[in-house]
Write a structure and sequence with these properties.
Helix content: 10-25%
Oligomer: single chain
Strand order of the largest sheet: 1-3-4-6-5
Radius of gyration: 20 Å
Number of helices: 3
Amino acid sequence: SENIVYYWEPSELYEQVDELGERGLGDTVVRLGALVKTGSLTVSGLGEDQSIDFLATDGTRDIRVFSSGVPPAMLREGIGVVVEGRFVEVGCDEAEAEVGEQALLCETEMFTGGPAFFSDRLLVKHSNEYRLPDDTLDDPMAVYETLEEM
């Protein structure tokens, strides 16, 4: 039980924000688990100066995720991700836009302000589900026959 890591889905994150208020989370670092919404992934820049921008969804609620650095090689739309970072309410008016990562997010075409999640750490979830090479195989034990011949 010491190695279990919990994360919130976007709906649960919004519930916490509704309950505590947007300032209630403060600079608390949380983990968010969701799917990368199809049609929302943008990677720009080169090398260490890359920025990643996408919508994380749990099918009910979406939240804009912004991260910088080299994205994981397996990152693509429609797969699960776990992002570690913090919730921020971003204002993109000239008077409200801050310098740094919030200002960079406001420069993207798809974001005009509102709730966002700034990620310091982005992990791609992959399945540990094993599938037989041939789904039509009637006897799964037949796979072992080829190993015995070696």
